[in-house]
Design a protein that fits this description.
It holds the Pfam family PK_Tyr_Ser-Thr. With about 260 residues, the protein is an alpha+beta fold. Helices cover about 40% and strands about 20% of the residues.
Length: about 260
């Protein structure tokens, strides 16, 4: 991992292009050693330290890579990806095989996160990056270590599991619920949020109290039926009855190539 000196960082800052803004800070596009990179600037040093630690501990081909850091705990330089999953799905019509490859990559990344002892807690299309039809997981701002006490500050939105909505204890299976939503997003929704008309925390809570789940039309081919069935298992209220990421990987390995 490359550590910039003050002069290098000051030079790079002159040519940053704004990309997005989040709770932890802002993301820019820039160059490091003539390579295009995403530059994530943090508001707080603790968030910087946590992100670097989590990404390094979870390092594998399905997790975004850190190329460098600033001389003070201010920003990290990440591999640049032209799409997040949300934009990619909206702009591209995927075959079943292309969808399978992306979802398998995401499942493998999540399986590795769980294997090294973390819960991500923010699996959603915006936190999955795409390049050359392959996917990696990013943004560990909400992640926690997989051991008690399971303290977290994950806000309620349409990508979270029921246990977060109702303030219960979380586990790796909390990520599996969100992974099920991502699978639905890729294979069925084609770019729509799980509950597009449910915009407030109270509305989301009411939807979960009624045990609502995203609408999925009856699949017409056997391969999609298998994906549909395991997604329904991801959405179970009881955490421990949800599948593991490894089980989901095995499913995608079995599916034959067909067009959605």
């Amino acid at each position: 991992m490359f550590r910039l000196n003050e002069r290098q960082w000051n030079q790079i800052k002159k040519d940053l292009k704004f990309v997005s803004k989040g709770a932890q800070g802002e993301v820019f596009k820039g160059k490091l050693l003539n390579k295009e990179v995403a530059i994530k600037k943090f508001k707080h040093e603790d968030d910087f330290v946590k992100e670097v630690e989590c990404i390094n501990n979870c390092a594998c081909e399905f997790i975004v890579s850190i190329f460098g850091i600033t001389p003070t705990p201010e920003a990290i330089f990440l591999d640049w990806f032209p799409y997040d999953l949300e934009n990619y799905i909206i702009e591209n019509q995927l075959t079943l095989n292309e969808s399978k490859v992306l979802l398998s990559d995401i499942s493998k990344g999540l399986a590795y996160i769980h294997r090294v002892g973390y819960i991500h807690l923010d699996i959603r299309p915006k936190n999955i990056l795409i390049r050359n039809q392959r996917a990696v997981i990013c943004d560990f701002g909400m992640s926690i270590i997989d051991q008690p006490p399971y303290n977290h500050n994950r806000a309620v939105d349409c990508w979270v599991a029921p246990e977060i909505v109702f303030g219960k204890e979380v586990s790796t299976k909390t990520d599996i619920y969100s992974l099920g939503l991502v699978i639905w997003f890729v294979c069925e929704s084609k770019g729509t949020d799980p509950f597009p008309k449910t915009t407030t925390e109270s509305m989301i809570k009411a939807a979960f109290q009624c045990k609502e789940r995203p609408r999925w039309n009856a699949p017409k081919i056997e391969e999609l039926k298998k994906i549909h069935d395991i997604t329904k298992k991801c959405w179970r209220d009881e955490m421990e009855s949800r599948p593991t990421a490894r089980m989901i990987i095995d499913l995608f390995n079995e599916i034959k190539e067909k067009t959605l």
